[in-house]
Each structure stands twice: as C-alpha cells, then as structure tokens.
Amino acid sequence: MQIEKVTLSLLRMTLKFPFETSFGSIDTRDCILVEVTADGVTGYGECVADYDPGYGYETTGTAWHILEEFLIPHVFRQDITHPTDFMNLVEWVRGHQMAKAGLEMALYDVLGKQQGKSLRQLLGGEKDRVPVGVSIGIKPSPQAMLDVAAGYLEKGYQRIKLKIKPGRDVAETQLVRNTYPDLALQVDANSAYTLETAEALLPLDELGLLLIEQPLAEDDLWDHSQLQAQFSTPICLDESIHSPRHARQALEMKATRVINIKAGRVGGLSQSVSIHDLCQEQAVPVWCGGMLETGVGRAANLALASLPNFSLPGDISASERYYHEDITNELFTLNPDSTITVPDLPGLGVTINRPALKRATLRTEIFTSENA
Ligand code: OSB
Ligand code: MG
Fold first, then answer.
1. Which ligand is nearest to the CA of 215?
2. pLDDT digits over 53-68, tens only?
C-alpha cells in the first residue's frame, strides 16, 4: 500500500462517570485518532496514550511527537504490504509502543478494507461473540463499590473487575465476594504495591478470585515472581508486558500465570497475536485488556479477543458505559450472555461519526509525503 496522507487528531472524550485507579481519577479521556489514506482507502487507528503518564510513560504528547517526527515520515518512504512490515520497519524506534500501535491499527483497517476482510479474519480470530466484563473504578467506600457492582450485574455483566489501591482493597473485595459468592471476580492494582506492602493483599487469596492484576511496579518482574510464590491466586501482568519477549521472560520467571493483552501496550495487533500464540503454546490463558477506548479501539479489541486463547472475559464493556458521545456511528451493546458481537465488516468494521469527532477534537494535523 502506498500511503498518501496521515491525519492525527487529538481527542478529549468526556466520561459519563469519573474513573478512578490507583494512579488517579479522570473525568475526561484523551487519545489520538490516526487516519491513514492509502491507495484511496482510509483506515482508522486509536492511540491509547492518555494526557498524563500515570498508567505508563507514554502520553498523547509523547505519542504525537514520535508519530510526527519519526513514524509517519518513515511510512511515507516505504512500501508497506502488510502491517507486520510496519512493525519491523519501526523497530529502530525504541519503546513508544502506543504510538506505534495507533498507526499500525489504521494500517490493518486499510488492509481489511482493501481485501474485503474483517480485522477478525486478518488476525485469525474464531469467535463471533466474545465474553466481556466490566472494570469498576475505585469508590469512596466498600458499600459504594458494592452498589456499582450490583448495577452492572443487573445490566448483565457476568465478570467484574475491581480497581484497588492501598487502603481501598480487601474490605471492598470481601464485601462484593460475600454478597456474590459465585461471581467471576478479579482485582487490578495498577502497580500500587511493593513486595512488602502487598502482604496486605493476602486475605484476597481466600476469595477465589480469577486473578490479581499488576500488584507491583511495571519493571518489577522479579518481585512479581516472588509474590506469585506467596499466592495461590494467579497473578496477571498488564503494565509489565511490552513485547512477546517480556511475556516469555515473565512466564519463565513464573512472575505471572495469566497475561492481559492490550495492543497499545505491546506495540500493536501483530505483537498481540504473537503473545497470544506464545501463551497458547504454554497453556497460559490471556484476556483482552481495555484502555477506555472509543468505538475505534473497541472494535479492534473485539477482533483481537476473538482469537481462541483469549479464554477469560475481556475489559471490553458496552459503548454506553463510557462516553456521553462516542466517535463511531456503531455502538457496541451487551448481549444477554455477557458477550459482545465482533464486527464482521471489512477492516475494523466501524464508521466515524464526523460531527461527534469534530466536537471531541482539540487539535488536528495533516501529513502528506510533501510535508512530513
Ligand atoms: O489497568 O486495565 C487497566 C483503564 C485505563 C488504564 C488502565 C486500565 C484501565 C481499565 C479500563 O481497567 C478497562 C476498560 O477499558 O473498560
Ligand atoms: Mg490493568
């Protein structure tokens, strides 16, 4: 494909409810929409970096810089036949996985539209509906957490994830567990503990949780292996895994028994498939994480989660759970069996709601082979 034009748009999406994690509370979610035109076909990608570097080091500011200065000029100079070419081409850019993944997703959308194949087909997905759950932010009290969980169960979600941080952890998880003894339940600490302070989480090991997600720092692979040895509940790594290599090392070190795959965090969809395949060979379950995506990134997550070893429900909730106004015309809804249907139109299978996009856009810049 010969890339003719790339448009970046910085978006600020207004959440229906504040979302609190161990690294902060947000009312709005920023991201970058990447629009690629190649051979007359336009594809979309979502770069999931947020305004601030609380989840990882990337921000919309760093991602814009890396895209503008390095990734976009590079793709204008190359002939790319498949998105996996792109990943090899930009390997020389160290890190910045979210910036790479945003552009790569748009290339997949273009390729799918050119070939008349859905992203699910391009990635080798099988399921046409994928099991999903909901990720609930930290609340001011255990009772408030329980009330919110009850509301989502009423809507039909069959798997709940509770965000936790020191002091807002055991009591809320125990309350939800005692109220719903059979619920598929898991927690996510977003790196809020150290090997020492994580001792406070030992009571969670009695609650039959599916997994405990990212208790320790991103670069604490070794300490995660020490912690896993103290817990019978599987530890699941999110922030720590940036590549198939990290995934292999974490498994060899027994730092994790489950992996949360987010295409943004690992440099794109093709790397996500590699991690999926590696885990499948070792009978290690994976699931699709979420970054509060718009309809664009949500469509990609659904396609990814349709691969066979995505054996735990994903953090891919219905569109209505997130934003006052999404930027796609297609809105994803929850099926009664706690699944969401995977799009099957060519590419991502979504179209852009232009007026909504315009309302969410803070800044746009167009790059062509002449000005990049
Ligand atoms: O750690 O999984 C996480 C959102 C932003 C940053 C990190 C995380 C999350 C979520 C949201 O848990 C999941 C979703 O998109 O519904
Ligand atoms: Mg997480």
1. 2
2. 999 999 999 999 999 9
Q: What's phi and psi for 23, nearest 5 deg?
A: -105, 5
pLDDT exceeding 90 applies to what percent of the chain? 96
133-168 residue pLDDT tens: 999 999 999 999 999 999 999 999 999 999 999 999
Q: Which residues pair with 244 in a beta bridge?
A: none
Q: What does the pLDDT read at residue 241?
A: 98
* DSSP code of residue 252: H
pLDDT at 369: 85
Question: Residue 16: CB partners within 8 Å, gap ≥ 6?
Answer: 321, 322, 323, 324
CA-nearest of 169, 221, 172, 178 to 198 is 169
If we measure between CA atoms, which residue out of 203, 202, 139 comes closest to residue 168?
139
Nearest residue (by CA) to ligand 1, atom 8, is 291
Q: What is the position in ligand 1's atom list of the atom closest to the CA of 188?
A: 1
- 371 pLDDT band, cuts 50/70/90, is confident
Q: Which atom of ligand 1 is nearest to the CA of 134?
A: 16
CA 315 to ligand 1 center in whole angstroms: 7
What is the rounded CA–CA span in Å between residue 212 and residue 205?
A: 9
Closest CA to 67 of 10, 126, 109, 8: 8
Q: Is 262 a catalytic residue?
A: yes
Distance in Å, CA 188 to ligand 2 centroid:
6
Q: Separation of 163 CA from ligand 2 center, angstroms?
A: 8
For ligand 2, the distance from its centroid to the CA atom of residue 237, given in whole angstroms, is: 8
Looking at every residue in the chain, the average pLDDT score rounds to: 97
Residue ranges lining ligand 1, Cβ < 6 Å: 55, 135, 188, 190, 238, 289-292, 315, 317
Give the E-state strand segments of the chain in sequence order. 3-21, 24-38, 41-47, 129-131, 134-136, 159-163, 184-188, 212-213, 235-237, 258-261, 286-288, 339-341, 361-368
Q: How far apart are alpha carbons 12 and 160 in whole angstroms?
A: 27
CA distances to 160, 324, 364 from 315, in Å: 9, 19, 29
